[in-house]
Amino acid sequence: MCERERKPTRCDLLVSYNIGHGNPVTVSHTILTSTSIKHLPNSILLLKHLKYLTLMDCKLLEKLPDDLGRLECLEELILQSKKIKHLPDSICMLKHLKSLQLYGCELLEKLPEDLGRLECLEQLTFMCKNIKHLPDSICMLKHLKFLILNCELLEKSPGDLGRLECLKELTFISKKIKNLPESICMLKYLKVLILYCELLEKLPDDLGRLECLEELTFLSKKTKHLPDSICMLKHLKSLKLSECELLEKLPEDLGRLECLKELTFISKKIKNLPESICMLKYLKVLILYCELLEKLPDDLGRLECLEELTFLSKKTKHLPDSICMLKHLKSLKLSECELLEKLPEDLGRLECLETIRLERCIRLRDIPSSICRLKSLKCFSLRSCNKVEELPDQLGCLECLKELDIRGTCINNLPQSILMLEGLKILQGEEETPTPASASTGDCCTVL
């Protein structure tokens, strides 16, 4: 095995694996992928200089050697097996191990209690759905930088997580966790916090103490409010809140997140956004799936760096005129805005706009003629906007337009001006029912 060669090879029919009689001392990488082996031979322990051991998609592998801890140079262990029931305790003796990654070990229910002895460990990844608890000793891993736990049945996290002073990324994915320890707020170097915890009732009140946090992604069906301290995360660049079904309002001072570039809210309860959101001068992406949201802030046009606006609401009746001031906007997507009857007249001022998707806006009737000034527009969709009957006559001025989707509309006649748009693809006809090409479109357009 060459030290430079780490490319995995599929070995579906391999049922045994033995170390040869050559010179195993020099082997530093062993990678087995998609094998049928059930056991690793004890002879693997002869690989005194082995640094990387990767066992991916070894579906029948039932156990690791009891003395695995004798691989004293091992730095990375990656394991994926549906048959492994336990890890040898000796794994805790791998004093140079930097990365331990376990994937799809469905029968694994517990971890060695002394994992905290892996003093050089920097990455710990468990994607094992039946693990119910973590050993408290994990909190002794003082060099740990990445902790990724995708364990559906995990019921609680260790109380002293705050002792992981070097931690940069923390991911919890669990269907059982209801609370997080307050000590999590002591992770002063944490940059990424990802929480997919359906039953989590609240975030720690002092979350704002995570002064280095750059990304917060959160999913919970039980959380009713966010701590106000979240507005103190002055380095936060991405805030994503998904399926927060009981969340009814957002902190008023969200506008203090001065470094924020991406903001996503998915909620069935939120009716209003704080006006301070318009102070996010570096925001580039705003995604709002909020069925009950009644209006967008009037000063939305102050988001001068915004490039993508995606919006779903069944209660919003109009868009603020200031939206036409978003001079860097490239993508505008409005979906299921069932009460929206019209668009701002000056939409054509969005000179950087490349994509407009207006889909299932069932009361929308008229398209402002100013959109014909959108020189950068490439994609225009009115799919299932069933009240729209016509397009502006000068649509052919959109020289960059490559796709026009009018399926599910009442548009029967296309403006003659579009015949000169070279390479334009037109999606037309009933919902999900393509129509044959029309001779009236000439050679430049394709009608589907």
Output the keywords.
448 residues, mainly beta, 19-stranded parallel beta sheet, 19 strands, elongated
How are the secondary structure elements laid out?
Elements: E1 29-33, E2 52-56, E3 76-80, E4 99-103, E5 123-127, E6 146-150, E7 169-174, E8 192-197, E9 215-219, E10 238-242, E11 262-267, E12 285-290, E13 308-312, E14 331-335, E15 355-359, E16 379-381, E17 403-405, E18 424-427, E19 445-447
Parallel strand pairs: 1-2, 2-3, 3-4, 4-5, 5-6, 6-7, 7-8, 8-9, 9-10, 10-11, 11-12, 12-13, 13-14, 14-15, 15-16, 16-17, 17-18, 18-19
Percentage of helical residues? under 10%
* Uncertain residue ranges: 1-17, 431-443
What is the helix tally? 0
Strand proportion = 15-25%
What would the average pLDDT be, to the nearest integer? 90
- Structural class by sheet pairing and helices: mainly beta
What is the oligomer described by this structure?
single chain
Topology pattern, helix = H, strand = E: EEEEEEEEEEEEEEEEEEE
**Overall form:** elongated
Distance between the termini: 55 Å
Number of distinct beta strands: 19
Query: Biggest β-sheet, characterized?
Result: 19 strands, parallel
Radius of gyration over alpha carbons?
28 Å
Organism: Centaurea solstitialis
Protein name: Disease resistance R13L4/SHOC-2-like LRR domain-containing protein
Domain Disease resistance R13L4/SHOC-2-like LRR: 43-129, 224-316
InterPro entries: Leu-rich_rpt, Leu-rich_rpt_typical-subtyp, LRR_dom_sf, LRR_domain-containing, LRR_R13L4/SHOC2-like
